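Annex B. Sample input.
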Amino acid sequence: MADEKQIVRFKGLTSAEVEESRRTHGANILTPPEREPWWKLFLEKFDDPVIRILIIAAVIAIVVGVIDGKYAEGVGIILAVLLATTLAFLNEYKAGKEFDILNQVNDEVPIKVLRDGNFTTIAKKDLVVNDVVLLEIGEEIPADGEVLEAVSFQVNQSRLTGESVPVRKMTTEELAKESVDEGAYTRNMLYRGTTVADGHGVMRVTAVGDASELGKTARAAAEETEEETPLNIQLEGLSKLIGIVGFSIAALIYIALVLQDIITEELMLNSEQWYFVAVLHVSGIVALVRVWLPVIYDGFEFAGKELAPPEWLENDSFGGWLKTAGIGAVIFAGAMTLGVTLGWVSDTPSDWLPSDVGRNFLEYFMISVTIIVVAVPEGLAMSVTLSLAYSMRKMMAANNLVRRMHACETIGAATVICSDKTGTLTMNEMRVSDMNFPFTKEASSVDPLIVESICANTTANLDKTGESPVALGNPTEGALLLWLDKHGVDYSAKRAEFPITRQWTFSTERKYMGTLGTSPISGKSVLHAKGGPEIIMARCSKILTPKGVSPLTADIKTRIESELKTYQARGMRTLGVSYCEIAKYDKDADINDIAKDMIWLGCVAIADPVRPEVPNAIRECREAGIMVKIVTGDNPETAMEIARQINLWEDDDGREQYMTGSEFEKLTDEQAEEAVLKLKVLSRARPLDKMRLVKLLQKQKQ
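Annex B, continued. Sample output.
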């Protein structure tokens, strides 16, 4: 628990300041993404290009059915449309409900704060900017904030960045004094949704709710994009092709039937009747301009001469359709009124066209319309919906939720895969990669002294209730216990054989830990230490070799440091291990006072191993023409090493294929558009960097 006497020096907010901050900056609540009502979601299904052309075909078929008394075709098309849209809607509606359950946030979690000069507990949703918050190990950070105090303070940021190990956090003053590696986020800032992995600290809230980094990321991810799926693009093209071919053939057949009657003299009309026929056709063409004119524009598009349609044609509202129909009616009425006035036609409508000729024209029109209806594949919408619904169910069975059915097809049409590293390409489990102990002949040797050093000097444990053991506690220490378990060593039994006198746990300030106790091997009091190799080596004056204990000379140190740099260049974490016999010590002494003239045992290299199936999967993707990019919040060395292990990084790759998040952020959109196609590894990436990368790739039709 953070020292309350120390925390009192921080000024908490007064009640009045809390209310003012809430008015200015808002509450600490993440606004859930807006969900459209179910009826809008259902109507969206009718925006599908194939569904639209089926609806047009159904209307035409029903109109024909009204005239000739045959409704089966029109009713069948309507049923096909309703089945396809209803099935698509139900699948996506159910998926949306499941996403809502996942997105539920508990805003009632109690948070310890300093207010009105007193320590109190409030609900997470009641936090405001400038609140002083106390944070303990295992707690989730409730808002973004600046570190005011840090004691062995480490935070797991993998939820935001994908970093495989916790990040040490420090105050702004400590950050200015120390030289630390640049991470995805600065070391003096904390972010909502991350968790305290070790130690404790105090922070001042700087952003709450939607203004937090998590809130910004959630809002950006929830934005609906205008990006069309490959299947939609193909179906749109198919519907246009059906329209072009269907209407063209229908128009040609109609013209051919009329010409046939004229040539065979079955169609014999006087000038008055031809005037009426001409006016009727012109007004009909004008009234139906919204049907045939888009088909002409589609034809130009297919011919490679894309033309922009006029704005009035793109306005597909009901009022627009009424307007063009009204214009057609006005043209018909005006032309006939003019004809009657000028004596071109009789004022008796029954004289304008013989009834048998009118029936012939109507029959030819029905034949043309039937061809359009026949050209439409009524079963296509249902087959596409069933296929996507099946894919959606299979992905859900594999624990992958899909909100939109068309996303299933989009995955199959991907040209670029942007993959996180931790837990996706790797196993998200720290494991021992190499044991380098000079006194043993083999790296895998389970020497009693190594076993004792690991088992006694650790605070981690293994959970063996499942099929395979799981590390509990510090992941680095857990990796050592998993290595022992793999070699058949019962760590708990060996730990019990080493009576502990005193233990100094790891701290970020000391950078090592130690355990003092009685060794069952020698029967003497022994201090085991492990931590940063440079720190441990500085406390050693001797080294254990196959011939026994020898002086740790400058040459040996140089060789060990070279080996450590090789491990670190490959993105591995390294631990130095040492021990010494303690004949006498003051029980109140600090470990720094007794951990002197120690004996260097060796070092351990620890890494998050690549999943066995990943290299082959990457090879298959690249053979299929799919670009693969690693996008991670982890450090550059680790990201590059994983890229090499999965055979993504090649010998001739250079600086253009690698970038950090901060470098990517500084690029203009034009520079970034050029860079993203060449990029293979983006490290130290924040969530918004990942979002920008995806949008830039989509902009380039990827």
